[in-house]
Amino acid sequence: MRSVAFNNTLRGLSRAGSRFQPTTLPRIAAARAYSTPAESQYEFIQVSEPRPGVGQVTLNRPKALNALSTPLITELNAALLSFQQSPTIRAIVLTGSERAFAAGADIKEMAPLTFSKAFLDSFIESWSNLTFTVKKPIIGAVSGHALGGGCELALMTDIIYCTKTANFGQPEIKLGTIPGAGGSQRLTRAVGKSKAMELILTGKSFSGEEAERWGVAARAFDSYEELMEGALKTAETIAGYSKVAVQAAKEVVNKSQEVGLRDGVEYERRMFHALFGSQDQKIGMKAFAEKGKAKWVDE
Ligand code: CAA
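^ thats the input. predicted complex w/ acetoacetyl-coenzyme A below
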């Protein structure tokens, strides 16, 4: 059952949606930094559209270093769903503050939980909505602490950008528990078993510089300002391509994380074949041949 807050948010989103005109990116004149009606209902996040075609969610619970409480995750899911449904948003940036992307799941919320409550309520399961419902690319822009669930949330995004001094880690072992939002699986895929084992068993942090070197992050920047500019620029670049091709590209890369090589290559080839049925493939290749600029129709 959806919470009242979630339903209110969705009502706000459908009002916001009526302002969106189905259009392709080249026709968007300028970036809008506006407050959607839904945003005013958010307590723990901020939502904006800082560049054409780019939606940004900023975690905003500064006093708790963006600790990921259930109400925060509910808002995050609602905002991401609205970006997914928006015809104008084509890429998403998920970020926190300069001091903290997120310092983990909310320890104060978790402390009194019992096994049966966590089990029966499927505690933390809704965090994965991000990975299942959002088909548009998400760039995680990480500055400061990305610990425990914060590290796991970053690992759920499609591309991680960070500052060199960002502080990643899975410190759950120090709390007498283990990662619970995919850290043992995604971090292991990113850095290999031995390094993941060391990080998870010791709870030691690793820097943004190391994250880039190990392939956890695509890029590490010298400053917070450069990080945000880099993330928005990449999101804007992605937003300039065909929605159909972008969604297909995200899907085939993600498939590589779940299936063996042979099945993955087969899946990619089928998707590649399918794109010959899209108008944007014809538009893109014709524009190349005619030395023109493709005007995507997202079909
Ligand atoms: N949950 C709840 N509150 C948190 C929090 C968290 N994960 N992390 C920080 N806070 C709160 C602190 O309690 C403090 O609140 P008060 O001012 O009310 O005391 C406030 O944020 C500021 O934190 P600090 O004073 O500790 O700030 P600092 O700069 O000295 O230290 C820190 C920063 C190293 C990140 C430290 O806050 C810390 O170690 N936080 C916990 C990190 C952690 O263990 N995360 C994993 C959580 S478990 C998990 O995420 C499970 C999972 O896999 C899903």
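The pocket of acetoacetyl-coenzyme A is lined by residues 64-65, 67, 103-108, 124, 145, 147-149, 152, 171-172, 175, 179-181, 183 (CB under 6 Å).
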